[in-house]
């Protein structure tokens, strides 16, 4: 798919994988709608990308776990962009603890953000894609969406759920020229990984957010007749 002058909405665009994806898509001439909670991160990225690449960049500060805020953000971004072609469902967070140690409120917040937030954003954007009869949705899951591990019950449940959500939505819309994909990265060198105490090891050999952004770009560039259902992305850094 030719990406120049397309419009993409990216959630969790203030940092990490979302920010790297915004930079990569701006380099391709894609106009952007950015979502995260921290307005300063988004404002700084907006001026950097519009100044450097001459693309239109809009942002909305919203918590994706809150449906009314999501609906409003998607409504204003879609209006500013004049449509949407690409949705990158990337916003999410991970915290870890045993089922007994983790407070139910935190367990619920992980599900509410990673699963329900992805659902709210998708449900708000999908009518636009259905109306125009084309589009791509990429959901950022994780290797934690393929394998459970001790202390990962909430995070893994949220990311396994994203896999089921992705496959079901893919089956709903694949014949309507809308591609839905889940990517499952292992550890990426971002604030999320550092805060969670995940082993980063030798930074030069650890997968960087820009590497995931490259896979997102390659996925979007596939010919319209090709649908990447899911792709794992691992680091070669031995941990
Ligand atoms: N890093 C890894 O090792 C790794 C591996 C596999 C998958 N992933 C997945 O990749 C995605 C991005 O992670 P990352 O490592 O890039 O994390 P990150 O560096 O912490 O960035 C996360 C971004 O999401 C935003 N965000 C978080 N909660 C949000 C909410 N409730 N509403 C709106 N925006 C929210 C954050 O901004 P605000 O705080 O300003 O809202 C930030 O911009 C996540 O879904 C994560 O589960 C990460």
Automatic annotation (TrEMBL):
Molecular function, one GO term: oxidoreductase activity, acting on the CH-OH group of donors, NAD or NADP as acceptor
PANTHER family (alphabetical): DEHYDROGENASE/REDUCTASE SDR FAMILY MEMBER 7B, DEHYDROGENASE_REDUCTASE SDR FAMILY MEMBER 7B
Top-rank taxon: Bacteria
Organism whose genome encodes this protein: Paenibacillus nasutitermitis
Protein name: 3-ketoacyl-ACP reductase
GO cellular component: membrane
Coiled coil residues, start to end: none
Family named by the database record: Belongs to the short-chain dehydrogenases/reductases (SDR) family.
Keyword list, A-Z: Oxidoreductase
Gene name per UniProt: fabG
A Pfam family it matches: adh_short
């Amino acid at each position: 798919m030719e990406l120049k002058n397309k419009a993409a909405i990216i959630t969790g665009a203030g940092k990490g994988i979302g920010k790297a994806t915004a930079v990569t898509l701006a380099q391709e001439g894609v106009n952007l709608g950015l979502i995260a909670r921290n307005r300063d991160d988004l404002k700084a990225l907006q001026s950097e990308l519009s100044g450097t690449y001459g693309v239109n960049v809009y942002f909305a500060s919203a918590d994706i776990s809150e449906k009314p805020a999501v609906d409003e953000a998607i409504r204003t971004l879609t209006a500013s962009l004049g449509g949407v072609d690409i949705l990158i469902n990337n916003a999410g967070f991970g915290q870890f603890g045993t089922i007994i140690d983790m407070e139910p409120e935190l367990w619920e917040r992980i599900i509410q953000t990673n699963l329900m937030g992805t659902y709210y954003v998708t449900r708000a954007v999908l009518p636009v894609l259905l109306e125009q009869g084309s589009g791509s949705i990429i959901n950022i899951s994780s290797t934690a969406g393929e394998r459970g591990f001790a202390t990962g019950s909430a995070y893994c449940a949220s990311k396994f759920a994203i896999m089921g959500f992705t496959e079901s939505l893919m089956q709903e819309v694949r014949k309507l020229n809308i591609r839905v994909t889940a990517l499952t990265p292992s550890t990426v060198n971002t604030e999320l990984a550092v805060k969670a105490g995940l082993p980063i090891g030798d930074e030069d050999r650890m997968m960087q957010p820009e590497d995931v952004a490259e896979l997102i770009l390659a996925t979007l560039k596939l010919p319209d007749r090709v649908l990447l259902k899911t792709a794992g992305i691992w680091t070669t850094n031995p941990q």
